[in-house]
Amino acid sequence: MRISYREALKLGLREALTKNPNTFLIGEDVGAYGGSYAVSKGLLKEFGPHRVRDTPLSEAGFVGAGIGAALGGLHPIVEIMTINFSLLALDQIINSAAFMHHMSGGQLAVPLILRMTTGAGRQLGAQHSNSFEGWFAHIPGLIIFAPSSIEDARYSLEFALREQNPVLMVEHAQLLNDEDELPEKNTSYSLFSSNIRKTGDQITVVSFGANVKKCLAVADKLEKQNLSLEVIDLRILRPLQLELVFESVKKTHRLLLVDEGWLTGNLSAEIGIRVAEKFFDSLKCPILRIGKKEVPVPYSKHLEDLTLPQEEGIELAAREMLK
Amino acid sequence: MRISYREALKLGLREALTKNPNTFLIGEDVGAYGGSYAVSKGLLKEFGPHRVRDTPLSEAGFVGAGIGAALGGLHPIVEIMTINFSLLALDQIINSAAFMHHMSGGQLAVPLILRMTTGAGRQLGAQHSNSFEGWFAHIPGLIIFAPSSIEDARYSLEFALREQNPVLMVEHAQLLNDEDELPEKNTSYSLFSSNIRKTGDQITVVSFGANVKKCLAVADKLEKQNLSLEVIDLRILRPLQLELVFESVKKTHRLLLVDEGWLTGNLSAEIGIRVAEKFFDSLKCPILRIGKKEVPVPYSKHLEDLTLPQEEGIELAAREMLK
Amino acid sequence: MKKLKPEITVHFPNSFDEPFELGLFKNMLRIRRLEELCAELYTQEKIRGFLHLYIGEEAVATGVLSQARAKDNVIATYREHGHALLKGLSARSILAEMFGKRTGCCRGRGGSMHLFSKEHRFFGGQAIVGAGLPHAVGLALASEWLGEDRITFCFFGDGAVAEGQFHESLNLAALWKLPVLFCCENNFYGMGTAIERAQSQTNLVEKAKSYKIQGLSVDGMDVDAVVNGTRQALFWMQENKGPFFLELKTYRFRAHSMFDPDLYRSKEEVLQWKQRCPIEQKKKTLRQKGLLNNEKLLAIEKGIQDELSDAKTFAEASPFESPEDLYQFVYAGDGL
Amino acid sequence: MKKLKPEITVHFPNSFDEPFELGLFKNMLRIRRLEELCAELYTQEKIRGFLHLYIGEEAVATGVLSQARAKDNVIATYREHGHALLKGLSARSILAEMFGKRTGCCRGRGGSMHLFSKEHRFFGGQAIVGAGLPHAVGLALASEWLGEDRITFCFFGDGAVAEGQFHESLNLAALWKLPVLFCCENNFYGMGTAIERAQSQTNLVEKAKSYKIQGLSVDGMDVDAVVNGTRQALFWMQENKGPFFLELKTYRFRAHSMFDPDLYRSKEEVLQWKQRCPIEQKKKTLRQKGLLNNEKLLAIEKGIQDELSDAKTFAEASPFESPEDLYQFVYAGDGL
Ligand SMILES: Cc1ncc(C[n+]2csc(CCOP(=O)(O)OP(=O)(O)O)c2C)c(N)n1
Ligand SMILES: Cc1ncc(C[n+]2csc(CCOP(=O)(O)OP(=O)(O)O)c2C)c(N)n1
Ligand SMILES: [Mg+2]
Ligand SMILES: [Mg+2]
């Protein structure tokens, strides 16, 4: 079945609402409007306003209510329209959702799913172009999924629903219209591992979200020139699952990191330092990082393009590493 | 003059209020209560309620009002009681304060100072023990000072007031009662550089805030055993000023990072990867990092102690590196 | 269709003189034509990103800002092209900004949702719903502090009323008695969510009263009513030195943004509101008063068309910011 | 001293029977003695961190929670020892928690500000002012969803009313007609800030009304009044299926926390309020009614002393959590 990322997300939502009577979708404009990115379009009609609940503009309020509902025995799927607005609810996400299981000595759990669209690239200006998901990976108590394939888009909600922990599901706006074949569900399939999207043996390229696409495009291009890149999609940003990355670097001895977070302090810094420590003696060249340029994302297309990681930059870095 | 860190901060505040007629201190309980950490005690009496203004509990509201006041021609000093509550105002801090100069194409500036107490170590439990300052260093548009010496506590506000940018001043609760000699003001003194707190030539130890104390204690102890640590206090967390760190590593070829942020994705990861890249061929051993253990900070003293970087751990790491 | 309750009888003084009345009409039309042009340029992909049109709501910005002086502060939302225009930003600088050009008011950094002008004291262009309200409080605090005679006009939608920042800001403004005119553009929807599904109390003036803020609700489809309401508000503020809450009941004729499939309201509802088009209404009364005839109307349209086609030509011809300047304006001052 | 306005005449039914009345008295005294013990243990450095005492305010938790059933939910603040005790947590588990012991209700992870008990449906112990209110909304949503007959009691201070989360939560609860009893413990100060300096509208019931939430203000120094007010509230909620706002006017006799130098209010003010001590008042009426004599009083004191000294011994004797368990409880379930 060939479907879009958006449709895959919706299939996941429909399945969740069908199978789990105590799950509901709640957030701004998830219902009557159809979801600001049309992911939940039609679900209101299908499941009714009890299961697909529109909220006022009150991010802290409805995320906090999601926490309360989770404490009370439900498994809410809260949509924060975009990750930009999650800052308004960040106290709830960190000081309550992430900490409460621990603070209560293990008594309480917060089975809460927070879906949000992330990412830049559509000329929305600084306030609407943030990519905080890698940054949020700093917070213990959170689980963060960044589905980048159609398969992950389809199944990440299922994995999130198995958790008794708060799970952030970040859906990159640049992926929504992408189409691909949805593979049969494999029994060994799990979101709790990174994902080798293309094998290769000269450079390990690690990325997540929409930037994986760019890495794959470069890898495909360079393959024709007999340069072999292995592209790994992190897929889960916290807790980090780096086994496959380590195995890959053991083979390639080179690491290139591509990340839509601003360079300073992005998640790639963490992955880089872990690899640098582990492969202190065996790296063939310094680890390279491509991050977002350290400016608020500008509106103008040529400036926005310059700000974000691009295929040209990735290719250049890869070539540089193989020189 | 021998004074406490708290007194040094107050001297800075008094000077700011005296010299700059358009500056005022605003925040929860900065006035009648005397400041929740007694930093502004007495200033209400001295300067009156116009210059020392108590606010209701409305973090987003009064931080946003500070931004507006800055746009309107004032230079507000906003106190967020502790960095924990800054999450409630984080949208204002990032999407408005940090971005507005850029979004307006350079027309507007936001000369705003945000003071806040940070840090763990006093058994306040998870919600009151966060140390987000290194994490905030991810955000372009912000300047972040983390004064750790008496001298820095005394003068950082002066440097902050020279800026037309939003400046976060994070004051670690574990430093407030520390006393030291306040040196004469040196003309070359600047907050815009890191600070070598102790010279040495075997290991470069980089830290900031209250953890610098722990590093210094270890360095002093090891010195007696002829192990020589150079301790560098970052002092400004954004924009990072790493020249002295690089110079030091050029000499020591070893780097140890101590940071109160949770290990994954703390600021030390960034410093580490930059050093790893720059000194790819010349490091004598892998970079070591000591961060906060990845748990919400527990109340119980022995668990809290285990969670935070401690002298024993720093010493152990240093010895390990010199083996 | 939601009926506007005649809660407040606004009294029309005769002090509306001819040029003023024609000015109101012309300004509404300027906004309308600008917005129509934007929509067209958007389909041509010359304008990108989000685009939120104000069509249908023109009487609000026009009426309120007819009472604003150059020295007054204005804060608005992402639906702010009209406000920017009437606060004095040139159509050139607005369009060039939406084209992402260097000659745009924000040198292409901001785009449609982030128009700013320091010169015209237009402080955004805020795309986080509710986040402009605290800024208004601070701007008013500053003007009071500096002894400046300024009103801060703060525009926001009905949807923003549910945000915590609304609450915090109204309390602060009232507590500190600051000269903020809160202008709530109640178009009965926040994106696809009708106000009854967003607010337990839909009488927004009652909400304002709970902060001890004086309030008034006016028909935002009638520009004269908006002018009168604003005058009343400003008069009150002058006498009483404190904030005021003005609710402007209006309606957006177009979708929320160019992405909105507009599924949440009926065609009939939209149609009924369109019959109350503020521009058509004003046109009719001007004609009745003998202040407008076809000739004058054509001249006005022509003037606007000239302004806008000049702006469009300017925007198209303008250069983009140089790529080397990417890092500009991250920090003010010494180029940190 | 702030005068309590007799806005609401609470009617005392005769249904207060003897055990119930004595129970109220005893529970207030249990809180008082527990808090006094905590203060003592704090100066001995057995309890650390922040410690916020409820002394003076006992009638509030006692009166309100006398009407709470085991199945009801309670959320409170960092000043919550009394609420926890009356919701059924043992003095042992509370004191052991404050000692940081493994036998504490949160195994030493939470401390004074973070008491939790799943068993007793006590959901915090919340140290971020205002952050508990949305949780209450969600808990009520869940109970309604699951068809459970539960009231969610949500305690918070007058200071919290200024927070955006107050606003968002009251609107949501009213909009969705959820069974939350909002209990505002108005002790006239948020730390050192008097309510007049924090709220433009100090009549908090008026504020609640602006969300179309029914409200009632009662004398929080009079436990009978609190009981009656709570009964009235619950009766209303039963009939009308929706949230209710109960303001409890009270006063804290001690400083905000053990760190507070208490500079912002006069000794006289504190003294005047102390004369309205809820425990002394209740004692007097019980004596007048002939329900209490010295002997009974001694027995009650003795019972409490036994409970608390047992708890203290238990806490002291209890082991600390093993250091190997540091990483426990970061993630629920499979030990991620
Ligand atoms: C904090 C925040 N939440 C959500 C959004 C997405 N959003 C943009 S406009 C809007 C509706 C706002 O409605 P209203 O305030 O009534 O203004 P209107 O668009 O009707 O003029 C929403 C939900 C946002 N920009 N900011
Ligand atoms: C969001 C937040 N801001 C500030 C604080 C610091 N703080 C703790 S208690 C308090 C006062 C709260 O007053 P109120 O709600 O009236 O409760 P009371 O202490 O009087 O019971 C403050 C400012 C906090 N814990 N959380
Ligand atoms: Mg609206
Ligand atoms: Mg209080």
What does this structure look like?
The complex is a heterotetramer, with two copies of chain A (323 residues) and two copies of chain C (336 residues). By secondary structure, chain A is α/β, with parallel strands linked by helices. In chain A, the strands form three sheets. A seven-stranded mixed beta sheet of chain A has the order 3-2-4-5-7-6-12, sandwiched between helices. A five-stranded mixed beta sheet of chain A has the order 9-11-10-13-14, with helices on both faces. A two-stranded antiparallel sheet of chain A has the order 1-8. The radius of gyration of chain A is 20 Å and the shape is globular. The N and C termini of chain A lie far apart (42 Å). Chain C is globular. The termini of chain C are far apart. Chains in contact: A-B, A-C, A-D, B-C, B-D, C-D. Bound molecules: thiamine diphosphate (2 copies) and magnesium ion (2 copies). One thiamine diphosphate sits at the interface of chains C and A.
Protein topology:
The complex is a heterotetramer, with 2 copies of chain A (323 residues) and 2 copies of chain C (336 residues).
Chain A: E1 2-4, H1 5-19, E2 25-27, H2 43-47, E3 52-54, H3 59-71, E4 77-82, H4 90-98, H5 100-103, E5 113-118, H6 133-136, E6 143-145, H7 150-162, E7 167-172, E8 179-181, E9 195-198, E10 203-207, H8 211-223, E11 229-233, E12 236-238, H9 243-252, E13 255-262, H10 267-278, E14 288-292, H11 301-307, H12 311-321
Parallel strand pairs in A: 2-3, 2-4, 4-5, 5-7, 6-7, 10-11, 10-13, 13-14
Antiparallel strand pairs in A: 1-8, 6-12, 9-11
Chain C: H1 18-43, H2 58-65, E1 73-76, H3 81-86, H4 91-98, E2 122-125, H5 132-145, E3 152-157, H6 164-175, E4 180-186, E5 189-190, E6 193-194, H7 204-209, E7 214-219, H8 223-240, E8 244-249, H9 267-274, H10 278-288, H11 294-317
Parallel strand pairs in C: 1-2, 1-3, 3-4, 4-8, 7-8
Antiparallel strand pairs in C: 5-6
Bound molecules: thiamine diphosphate (2 copies) and magnesium ion (2 copies).
